[in-house]
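[agent] plan:
  1. take the single chain provided in the ticket
  2. run structure prediction with default settings
  3. attach C-alpha cells to the ticket
  4. add a short note for the reviewer (M.T.)
[agent] executing step 1
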Amino acid sequence: MVVCIKIMKMEKKDFYTIYIPALEKAFQNDSINLGFYVKSPEDYLDDEVASQIDQHLEEHEDEFLEKTACYFDAKSHGFPSV
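[agent] step 2 finished; step 3 output follows
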C-alpha cells in the first residue's frame, strides 16, 4: 500500500500565523543551551505543520527569517551579540 501526502503551498500570512507563536516560545527559552544547540522556532512546531513550514522556509528567502536563523545560531555558540 502506497500512501501519498500532498503538501499544499502555504501563503505568507498563514506561515507567519503559525511561525510567530513558535518564535515567541523560542525567544522565551533562548537561554537554554543544550550543548551548542538552542532550540529554534521550528523546534516548537507541531509535527502536523512542521513539514509545511520547512517547505515554506526552503522556497522563500526572507531577510527577517535569515536574521532569525543567525540569532539562534549565535545563541547556540554562546556569542554575546549577533
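[agent] step 4 note for reviewer: The chain is about 55% helix and 0% strand.
[agent] ticket updated
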